[in-house]
Amino acid sequence: NMSSQSEPTNKGDNLLQTPEQVRTTVHFNMLDFKEDENPEEKARRHKEMELKPLYKELLYTIAHKMGKPSSNEIFTDDQLRRYIREAFTMTESEHDSLLEKVQSTEPPVYCLMATVKEAKGILGKDISGFSDPYCLLTIMEDEEESRTRQSRAKPLKSVVKDAVSHDKIYQTDIKKQTLNPIWNQTFILEFGHFAGASFHLEMWDKDEEVSLTQKLEEFTTNLNNLRRMIKEAKKEKGTDDFLGKVVIKLKELHCTEDNWYTLEPRTETYPNRGQCHLNLKFIHKGRDGTLSAGRSAYVNYCGILQQFVQAYISKQQSSAPWKGELCGEAQTLLELYATQNDLSPFLQDLAKWVAYSKLYQSLEVDSSVLLQQLTSIEYHWHQQELPYQQKQELGDSLHGFLQYGLCLVAKYRDIFPPTPSATPKLHRLLRILVQICKTQAFQKLNPAQFDLHDEVTDAMQYSSHYFYIRKDLSEIGSALSRLIGEVQEDIKHNKDVWNRVFVSAVQVDVFTVTYKRFDSLIAKEMRETLSLMEDQMEQKLANSLFPVYLSLQAIYKDKAFLQKRGVLELSNFHEGFREALPYWLNQAFSTTQDRVERAVQVDQLQPLQTGVVPIKHSSSAVDLVACIQPICQLWEQLSWPDPEEAFMLMVKITEDVCKIVVNYCKILKERVRVLSKNSDHGSAINMLCVVVNDLEHLRTVLTRLPTQLNWAGLRDRTHDVIGESQFKNTLPSQLQQAQSILGREIRSALDTLGKKLNTDIETHVRNMSTRRRIPSKSTEDAAAPLMPLLVLLTPLWNNSVKIIHQVANQHQLQEGLMVFSQRLLYTLQCLEQCFHAEGNGLPLNKLHSDEYKALKSHLTHHSLNSQQLVEKYLEGKVFEQKAYSGEKYGAVTLLASYRTSDQRLRIDVLNAVNLLPMDSNGLSDPFVHLCLEPYHIFPEVEPRCTQIKNCDLNPLFDEAFEFLVSLEQCQAHSACLVITVLDHDTLRSDDFEGEAFLSLRSIPGVAKESKGDELSLQPNNVPAQIRLPLMHPKPNNNNILRLLESRKGDREAQAFAKKRRQREKQSQEKKMQ
Question: CA angle at residue 322 from 316 to 325, to 5 degrees?
């Protein structure tokens, strides 16, 4: 990586971060403030953007709280409001203002989430001694209940059915013939007034209308139930039996209840009617989404928890570690907020782990707090599935804490000195790291091999290596620069002057002798000096080394004049300057940035020249081109020899140029704002026109950048190490991103210009409307000034397409690309309709430009999810297999069939022929590996392997394998059998002979079944003998794999792409390129 702040690329690099750097990376903040921002401004912004939305959420929670908290301590609304005002450090005026806003918001819909889990010991109402129970649920308020009592002279069993409208009654399923029914059904019951409302559950036995004949049969077969049958006969046909009821006042409930409730009778008959298990929770529906700018309840819960913890710790006078305690008000508010927003206990514990683990990195937290949260997460992991986003957050948090802990371990000499108080802290930290690695959550979310023992061992080695203190090396760099400069001058004199004298006089090539001697001396001096500077690099030292590099480069170029070159020790001299390279780039970038800012500060935004050949842009645009030139010259000066590193260097230089251009847009906008304050209307419009011209000039500058930096030459140099697609997808995308920003700024300037021209447009329109008595030709003259404005429609459409294309490429490596692409595709369609305007706008032939077609194809492709992409890839391989001719890498013969009777796919591996010799003896030890793909269709099916045939290029296997798979799985479009032939090696990994892809839909039994149900009567199908030529994949030749690789958060996609890339590395096609 050529950036000045390189990202860690392996586990060793991760350990090179200091605790301060890690703390900066994962610090307990919710906003990413600018480092140079005023602390007071940071605090103000934090309060406005983070604390006040959370504060309003809590005020809303208090105003609409329902149910009693689980703690014994009860707090009034005023107590809770006083607490949050103190915890969030709000002034009285801020509190009153926010409270007024909350009081003006719409109240939520009050709901009771009732889960009817099960019942036990209920009455048996049927002749069989069982019942067919079901439950009716509703919420009745005092008025409804009193009205029901007054309307009846005699209490009836049914209250819910007759007292409440049918749309407010919820019914569970009917469970047939049981006294211990299990439902596990959840209903959300809305209600208006909390104080006088009550929850009603009635359990009934469902009775169906039965014929007389059936009654007589039951009578003759079961005389013991005579009494029950007589009672049944007295009932009306189809009348349900009452089993019991549960009535609870809502004001008596806690926020969350999970209890067994006794089923009460309507009369004294059968008082023991069993129990019903209910889970009751008060939640909100339709909660005002403007309180916290639409953020999710989970994110708000994390922020509230963070603020409460910080407030609690700040009030503590003791220096002892925090042990996870919070005051009663905080616990009550967290419980109310989580309940009202229906946050599961798993999400609450996840929020606590994330908050406490981050807090550990800034304050002293007792390790038992983290261990407790890890235990809770491990318990919930087996009970409940996390949403995808929170699952990723948990994985990142566990991995991030591991890296932070390893960083502390690497600095253990400084952070944990050998004292009685410090060493136990180190021990507890290691315990936490061990516990994280043991959790199922970490093992599932971080499937890559992570050996804590090896990681700690590496941290120890790092700690020992950097234990010694280094001295300032800037003087050494300056001395080395002077030495190399003198050597360079001496070599030049030998080549240009002294060599001719010695050759002509004594036939001695003094230049070659001297050069080779200096080559050895300089190489040794460079190794010794640069070894002292290793890992001590800083800007001043790097600046002193740049002249050294240029001098060495000049010396190395003189090797062309040697008579006998041989191997030079300076051949790879550039490797010693890798550490200084980012600093050189940073110096060039910062210097250019300062020059650009000064150029804009003196720019008056006037055209440089008018006349025969006008120059419509201003001075700063010209200066910008001159300022960028040194960065481009740096590329030429470096002439970095390593092709792969040169490509990364070009990526960084292109990125810096784009950053300078984007920053120029920002400061140019500020400049036009300052100059327009005291300018008249016409001057302001002229300045805006100049700004648009400046930005268009920049667009042409960026267009010439590939030629200026000689991308074509770099492409030729990197052809063998950088794939064509990687090259095109990296450098051009950077330019496209910068050009998209330019397009956006041009559009913004045009929009501002249009607003300022509104007065002029209105004048022209008014002139046209008053020309009633003037010939039509004059009217056309009046409309003429408006025509240039309408011309903007076509460039606006083209610019919109470019912007969408640039945005699509800009986000191609981020998570959520599929949904993002779907939205962009929808946006493009909406824009097309808008610009076409049902035939009144731009014609379709102008709208459907080449760039539009390419963009639409790109977005359609990227809208597929990872599983669809895998299926598309496999379908392509099956198609490639069918079109593949010849047996360049051999072939394999199979017998394949599918039996629907027992759902078994049978594959007989008969033989393989003409295999490549992979061993030194000119033979191979082949075996065949069978695997059903894709994995998401066959997740439970294990791969199979034949026996190994030693020293045979035409092996006879004759082995049968059966796979237990359903017909539906086999008939999936992408379902295929991947046949891989490998050469077995004992001491090394097996060599790749070739692979073949067989669509399962083409196998007898699968294909016939898909044609109609009548064919399913055939128990067996005649196996088909299939001969498949073996193929080798072509490296870097598939866009789907690149797209799957870009989805870093999708582990299944990463695993599939990694497996296919491994096959490409083993491919013989790679060697032929």
Answer: 85
Helix (H) or strand (E) holding 895: strand 891-899
End-to-end CA distance of the chain: 26
Question: Which pLDDT does position 37 carry in this prediction?
Answer: 62
Task: State the CB neighbour count (10 A cutoff) for residue 493.
Answer: 13
In terms of C-beta distances under 8 Å and separation of at least 24 residues, what long-range contacts does 952-956 make, across chains too? 952/923, 952/924, 952/925, 952/926, 953/890, 953/914, 953/915, 953/916, 953/917, 953/923, 953/924, 953/926, 954/911, 954/912, 954/913, 954/914, 954/915, 955/911, 955/912, 955/915, 955/926, 956/910, 956/911
Q: Which residues of the chain have pLDDT under 50?
A: 1-34, 153-155, 212, 223-224, 464-473, 761-762, 764-780, 782-784, 786-791, 1009-1019
User: What distance lies between CA 611 and its chain's CA centroid?
Assistant: 54
Which residues have C-beta within 8 Å of that of residue 888, sequence separation ≥ 6? 1029
Nearest-5° Cα angle at 952, 946 to 956: 50
148 vs 142: CA distance, rounded Å: 10
Task: Return the pLDDT at 30.
Answer: 38
Give the pTM: 0.43
Going along 123-255, which residue ranges are E strands? 133-140, 170-171, 182-191, 198-205, 241-249
DSSP letters of 793-850? HHHHHHHHHHHHHHHHHHTTTSTTHHHHHHHHHHHHHHHHHHHHGGGTSS-HHHHS-H
The rounded distance, in Å, linking the Cα atoms of 515 and 490 is 10
Q: What length is written for the chain? A: 1073
Phi, psi of 949 (to 5 degrees): -105, 110
C-alpha to C-alpha distance for 182 and 172, rounded to whole angstroms: 10
Closest CA relative to residue 1004, chosen from 891, 901, 905, 878: 905
Q: Are 528 and 473 in contact (CB under 8 A)?
A: no
**Using CA atoms, how far apart are residues 342 and 647, in angstroms rounded to an integer?**
51
Backbone angles phi, psi at 317, to 5 degrees: -85, -20
Q: What angle do CA 46, 47, 48 make, to 5 degrees?
A: 95
How far is residue 1015's CA from residue 1013's CA, in Å, rounded to a whole number?
5
Structure tokens at 98: 């926010």
How far, in Å, CA of 649 to CA of 640, rounded?
8
Evaluate whether 701 touches 624 at the Cβ level (below 8 Å).
yes
Q: HEC string of 691-757?
A: HHHHHHHHHHHHHHHHHHCCHHHHHHHCCCCCCHHHHHHHHHHHHHHHHHHHHHHHHHHHHHHHHHC
Cβ partners under 8 Å of residue 76, min gap 6: none
Measured torsion, CA atoms of residues 126, 128, 129, 130, in degrees rounded to the nearest 10: -70
CA-to-CA separations, 301 to 255, 256, 297, 342, in angstroms, rounded: 17, 18, 6, 11
Buried b (16+ CB within 10 A) or exposed e, 673-696: eebbeeeeeeebbebbbbbbbbbe
Question: How many separate helices (H) and strands (E) can be counted in the chain?
Answer: 42, 16
- pLDDT reported for residue 275: 92
Pick the closest to residue 845 from 832, 858, 834 (CA basis): 832
In this structure, what token pair is assigned to residue 141?
């308020």
Give bridge partners of residue 119 from the DSSP assignment.
276
Q: What Rg do the C-alpha atoms of the chain give, in angstroms?
A: 39
Give the orientation angle of helix 850-862 with respect to helix 817-836, to 10 degrees.
150
Q: Which two tokens stand for residue 490?
A: 């001496």
Contacts 24+ apart (CB under 8 A), 209-218: 209/237, 209/238, 210/237, 218/127
Check if the beta carbon of residue 641 is closer than 8 Å to that of residue 576. Answer: no
Under 8 Å between Cβ of 764 and 782:
yes
Q: What is the CA 663 to chain-centroid distance, rounded?
A: 27
Token output for 295: 């953020």
Bridge partner list, 140: 198
Tell me the three state secondary structure of residue 951. Answer: coil
In which residue are the tokens 């091999």 written?
Answer: 449
